[in-house]
């Protein structure tokens, strides 16, 4: 179903609310009150929205796959803990993320370690900690993992990350079907299998595939997953034993821009019977744990980034709202995190009764660069110094994906709202 043109209003109706005075509320709490307690700029996450999103996705893929959380999307242990309480394991990309997942209560055997540049120190850290699985992405890493395993007297479970052929591409950011630093090229897969098998300290148990990210079409994801099952079957045949894990990656997208269509979970569910039949029919795959590990899809809709208006000015016919928040905290919203064509994230006034006329408004931050722009033409009511604006879809790839040291502004607080209570999960400064 296509998202209505007023994406911000649609997302507020779906995940948050407004009271009779038009004040934006998260989990029943006034955003104005939250900023009085925790200051601005401020990241606010709604645990209830996270839980609903996780449960809906699990229900859609039940019988086919389990759902883990990709920690890179939001590595705050309190956020990881919400998904762990729902049953998720964790996919990590560094030793520090391993520590964050463990601090959130995730057992080490439920943690998968991916990423193209795993160093010796991080490998020692996770192997000593009992990591469940490490995904190999190149020959040097294979040798490094084997050496670390030998140092710790362990046999380490590993999977091969495969850079698939062009048939598996899709999503807003292709991560397969082209030259890539990620994983072994599909055409070199057999040689990589043989090389792993020759390492006594490694046990090849699975496949990792990640063909693209920000996928909004069910048919694209289903096609990628089917392709992944074919690659998994090849690994099982080459090793002569069943696979234990088939990690089909994340890549599930969320609507950021007007006109985006939200991922149709019903269509996703409708396409699974053929994939389930493929799994059951192949002895090399039938007992494998199939894993999806989205991050953005699970955490993104639950977050707001709230900033306070410092000034409003007109410049040569354009309206600018200058705030205390910006790209140093939320690079994605500024359009500088991989966007080729910069478009506005959904952004709303925190107080909006709906009666005032909207005008196209540029919302900018306090940094000394024209790149520091949270919106270029957001349809906003009149705003004045002291008012608040909120960037939606901000629960993923926000603070920790941003250049927080640029111009040395203090870090914002992060707040988790659940059961009518707000808890600071990262303090300001």
CATH homology superfamily of the largest domain: Alanine racemase
The CATH architecture of the largest domain can be named as Alpha-Beta Barrel
Report the principal-axis shape. Answer: elongated
Count helical runs: 13
Mean pLDDT: 94
Estimate what percentage of residues fall within beta strands: 15-25%
Question: What's the end-to-end separation, in Å?
Answer: 41 Å
The biggest beta sheet is recorded as: 10 strands, parallel
Number of strands: 24
CATH topological fold name of the largest domain: TIM Barrel
Helix content: 25-40%
Give the total of domains.
Answer: 2
Q: What is the CATH C-level name of the largest domain?
A: Alpha Beta
Q: What would you call the structural class?
A: alpha/beta
Q: Could you name the ranges where pLDDT drops below 50 across 5 or more consecutive residues?
A: 171-175
Walk me through what this model shows.
The structure is a single chain. By secondary structure, this protein is of the alpha/beta class. The chain has two domains: 167 residues, Lyase, Ornithine Decarboxylase, Chain A, domain 1 (Beta Barrel), CATH 2.40.37; 253 residues, TIM Barrel (Alpha-Beta Barrel), CATH 3.20.20. The chain contains 13 helices and 24 strands. Strands 5, 6, 7, 8, 9, 10, 12, 13, 15 and 16 form a ten-stranded parallel sheet that branches. Strand 8, helix 6 and strand 9 form a beta-alpha-beta unit. Helix 9 runs parallel beside helix 11. The radius of gyration is 22 Å and the shape is elongated. It starts with 6 loop residues before the first helix and ends with a strand. About 1% of the residues have low confidence.
């Amino acid at each position: 179903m296509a998202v209505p043109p007023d994406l911000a209003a649609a997302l507020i109706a779906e995940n948050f609310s407004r009271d009779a005075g038009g004040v934006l509320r998260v989990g029943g709490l006034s955003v104005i009150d939250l900023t009085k307690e925790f200051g601005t700029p401020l990241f606010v996450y709604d645990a209830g929205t996270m839980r609903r999103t996780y449960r809906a996705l699990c229900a859609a893929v039940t019988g086919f796959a389990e759902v883990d959380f990709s920690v890179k999307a939001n590595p705050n242990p309190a956020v990881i803990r919400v998904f762990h309480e729902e049953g998720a394991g964790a996919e990590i990309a560094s030793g520090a993320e391993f520590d964050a997942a463990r601090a959130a209560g995730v057992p080490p055997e439920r943690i998968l370690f991916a990423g193209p540049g795993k160093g010796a120190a991080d490998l020692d850290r996770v192997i000593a900690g009992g990591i469940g699985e490490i995904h190999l992405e190149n020959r040097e890493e294979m040798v490094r993992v084997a050496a670390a395993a030998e140092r710790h007297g362990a046999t380490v479970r590993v999977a091969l990350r495969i850079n698939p052929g062009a048939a598996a591409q899709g999503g807003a950011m292709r991560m397969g079907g082209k030259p890539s630093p990620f994983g072994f090229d599909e055409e070199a897969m057999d040689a990589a299998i043989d090389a792993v098998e020759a390492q006594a300290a490694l046990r090849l148990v699975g496949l990792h595939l990640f063909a693209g990210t920000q996928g909004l079409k069910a048919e694209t994801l289903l096609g990628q997953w089917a392709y992944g099952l074919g690659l998994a079957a090849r690994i099982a045949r080459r090793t002569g034993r069943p696979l234990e894990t088939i990690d089909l990656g994340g890549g599930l997208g969320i609507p950021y821009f007007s006109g985006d269509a939200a991922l149709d979970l019903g269509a996703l569910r409708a396409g699974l019977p053929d994939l389930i039949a493929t799994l059951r029919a192949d002895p090399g795959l039938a007992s494998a744990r199939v894993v999806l590990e989205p991050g953005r899809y699970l955490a993104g809709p639950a977050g707001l980034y709230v900033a306070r208006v410092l000034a409003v000015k007109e410049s040569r016919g354009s309206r600018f709202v200058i705030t205390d928040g910006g790209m140093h905290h939320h690079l994605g919203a500024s359009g500088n995190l991989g966007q080729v064509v910069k478009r506005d994230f959904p952004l709303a006034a925190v107080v909006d009764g709906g009666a005032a006329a909207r005008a196209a408004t540029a919302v900018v931050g306090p940094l000394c660069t024209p790149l520091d722009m949270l919106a270029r033409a957001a349809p906003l009511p009149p705003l004045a110094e002291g008012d608040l604006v909120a960037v939606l879809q901000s629960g993923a790839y926000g603070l920790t994906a941003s250049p927080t040291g640029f111009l040395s502004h203090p870090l914002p607080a992060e707040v988790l709202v659940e059961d009518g209570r707000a808890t600071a999960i990262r303090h300001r400064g």
